[in-house]
UniProtKB/TrEMBL annotation:
Residues 1-21 form the signal peptide. The gene is Lhfpl6. One of its GO terms (cellular component) is membrane. Pfam families: L_HMGIC_fpl (PF10242). InterPro entries: LHFPL (IPR019372). This is LHPL6 protein. The lineage of its organism: Eukaryota, Metazoa, Chordata, Craniata, Vertebrata. It comes from Nyctibius bracteatus (Rufous potoo). The keyword DNA-binding does not apply. It is found in: Membrane.
Length: 139
């Protein structure tokens, strides 16, 4: 197996993959905010939630649904800021994963990644990291 990466490039490729995987897992998990409501533990992320209140029209009360799930639609996400965060974080995770998988392929295929491609990929990875951290949105 020939590689187009130096030793530092191989370390970068594996660390990039680990960071991209951690970002994607964090994006899909609903544990961004934890708290309690109606004496129940609740948590939610950008597009997933666990233990959320629902209005029971037959009894005219609010009950807690104790399960995890996605919002029914993109418009059901509670605010415009959370919708923007969902899109930007998803794009950032996608960029990070694309660069990490390309770098891992560079460990196995010779002449896949040149010095210029490595620098461009690092810039894309930096941009993806900024997007997945939510920089520039309400900060």
């Amino acid at each position: 197996m020939a590689s187009s990466l130096t030793c530092a490039g191989v370390v970068w490729a594996f660390l990039s993959f680990l960071c991209a995987a951690a970002s994607c897992v964090g994006f899909f998990m609903p544990y961004w905010l934890l708290g309690s409501q109606l004496e129940k533990s609740v948590s939610f992320g950008t597009f997933r939630r666990c233990s959320y209140p629902v209005r029971d029209e037959s009894r005219q009360t609010t009950v807690m649904v104790e399960q995890c799930g996605r919002y029914a639609s993109f418009q059901a996400i509670p605010s415009a800021e959370w919708r923007i965060c969902t899109v930007v974080t998803g794009l950032g995770c996608g960029l990070l994963l694309l660069v990490a998988l390309t770098a891992l392929m560079g460990c196995c295929v010779s002449e896949l990644i040149s010095r210029t491609v490595g620098r461009v990929a690092g810039g894309i990875q930096f941009l993806g990291g900024k997007c997945s951290c939510g920089e520039g949105i309400g900060t």
